[in-house]
Amino acid sequence: MQQQKTVEMKNIHKQFPFVKAVDGARFDLFKGEIHSLIGENGAGKSTMMKILYGMYPIDQGEIFLNGEKVDLSKYNTHSAIKHGIGMVHQEFMLVKEMTVLENIILGVEPTKRNSKMALDFTAARKKINHYIENYQMNVHLDRKVLNISVGEMQRVEIIKALYRGADVLILDEPTAVLTPQEADKLFEILDIMRKDGVTIVFISHKLKEVMAISDRISVMRGGKYVATVHKSDTTIPELAKMMVGREVFLDGKRSMVEVGEPVLQVKNVYVPSERELSKNRDISFMVRAGEVLGVAGIDGNGQSELGEAIAGLRPVEKGEIILGDKVISNKAPHYVRDCGLAHIPEDRNDRGLNKEHTVTYNLVAAEIGDAPFSKYSIISEKEMRKVSEERIERFDIRPRDPRNLAMGFSGGNAQKIVVARELGAPGKKLLLAAQPTRGVDIGSIEGIRRLIDKAKREGLGVLLISADIDEILALSDRIIVMYEGRISGEVVNDEYLTDEKLGMLMLGGEADAKS
Ligand SMILES: Nc1ncnc2c1ncn2[C@@H]1O[C@H](COP(=O)(O)OP(=O)(O)OP(=O)(O)O)[C@@H](O)[C@H]1O
């Protein structure tokens, strides 16, 4: 690796209204390295990189690009792009109705030499095809973005940045939205890009991935810089400890609880879907009080539809779903909740939170009409505040101030607000947890997993839908696997169950897996 510093950020400070997001942190990049930036939710990673990308002005600090000090009074996204910095955000910024090609050249359209009014699509296509071939990306230039997969959208975002001349590419949690296969594909692409001299910043919570692809790793905690280490000089437990400031135990033993009556019965259920492979076809299983039933599978095999049907968010064509002793199929979501459903939805941004409201409101939203929050139709702000403060403390939501709006929260803390509301409310029988730790940092993963295990110990049945095999294995007592809308197998999570056996079922194989 050449030791030329492409980027150097020193003593950076950034204050938001309620929180000091970056507090004297530093960061640097050598040309052609993959440098991971890790830290708990809210540690300031995204803010630090958005500063480098010119999105936020800073209160104090210095940035050097290729050895030259940047005039920060004039620094913005435009200047960052000019300096060869590109960023792919957690949420993609593509126009769905336009084709991939149109999206890539949007705003920087090449024109024909003889007429500034005529777009030169041939030139654009040639330049883009060079990236596609060089980095072995599977991208269809003439498809509309609404018809391509999430993985392909991400590749389009990467090409968009390269097309604008990026040789420093910041990827903010790129694998959070990808299937394991798509993530592997992305790593292959990044590896070729690195060999080609592109410098890559990889923000991630998945320490296995970080250890697999990084050259160096920097750790932030509470807005501050903690350390930078070479991959070969560190280990996953050491990184976890640097991030969280204490030892983290992710492979704690799950509790063994005596199971009780069935709390959820799904009987020969058919659920429609816009995608053929996700239609649920004749699904039957039950979850008992005091057990965790894991639903494993590669994303898009009908798990999301199943979860939505149980929560009352999607119709059931045939069959029946029973919660406790009540039929809940084709009933309204609030009825299902009243029957005892606690729901951690897959999409916390759209369904889990009301982002324009405060943390207090979000933490008690489902109970606002009940005592003690509401008496004689009068809402008690004081009670709401008291309970929300309790839940903020108990579920370790940061920052602590309940007056904050949900929209300012980092990924993991936003998820903790949802978990706190759902598990904090009384009278629950079933916890439906869909991808509960996606995008969540390692300390919070440990916390959320403990809370799920605790819900089981307290007698709830838990239906855990997760694409993360490690998570399924850590928490589930029994596991069903979904493949193309059907249950491809059911296994007991005992010492005979292996990753390979489960992986085989996830790919639709038989795997003589009935253990
Ligand atoms: N636009 C904003 N307005 C107000 N506060 C913000 C804004 N963006 C971030 N914050 C706050 O700044 C802190 C740092 O957030 P940041 O998104 O940089 O963390 P992160 O390390 O990237 O976290 P995550 O891993 O959860 O994405 C958090 O407390 C967050 O709530």
Automatic annotation (TrEMBL):
Q: Which InterPro entries match?
A: AAA+_ATPase, ABC_carbohydrate_import_ATPase, ABC_transporter-like_ATP-bd, ABC_transporter-like_CS, P-loop_NTPase
Q: Which Gene3D superfamilies match?
A: P-loop containing nucleotide triphosphate hydrolases
| GO cellular component entries | plasma membrane
**GO MF terms on file?**
ATP binding; ATP hydrolysis activity
Residues of the ABC transporter domain: 7-247, 264-509
> Can the keyword Nucleotide-binding be found in this entry's annotation?
yes
Quote the PROSITE patterns the UniProt record gives.
Answer: ABC_TRANSPORTER_1, ABC_TRANSPORTER_2
List the SMART domains hit by this protein, alphabetically.
Answer: AAA (SM00382)
Provide this UniProt record's keywords sorted from A to Z: ATP-binding, Cell membrane, Membrane, Nucleotide-binding, Repeat, Translocase, Transport
Report which superkingdom the organism of origin falls in: Bacteria
Q: Where in the cell is it found?
A: Cell membrane
Q: Which Pfam families match?
A: ABC_tran (PF00005)
**Topological type in the membrane:** Peripheral membrane protein
Record CDD domains: ABC_Carb_Monos_I, ABC_Carb_Monos_II
Q: Matching PANTHER family, A to Z? A: CARBOHYDRATE TRANSPORT ATP-BINDING PROTEIN MG119-RELATED (PTHR43790), GUANOSINE IMPORT ATP-BINDING PROTEIN NUPO (PTHR43790:SF4)
Report the protein name in the record: ABC transporter ATP-binding protein
Which organism is the protein's source?
Diplocloster agilis
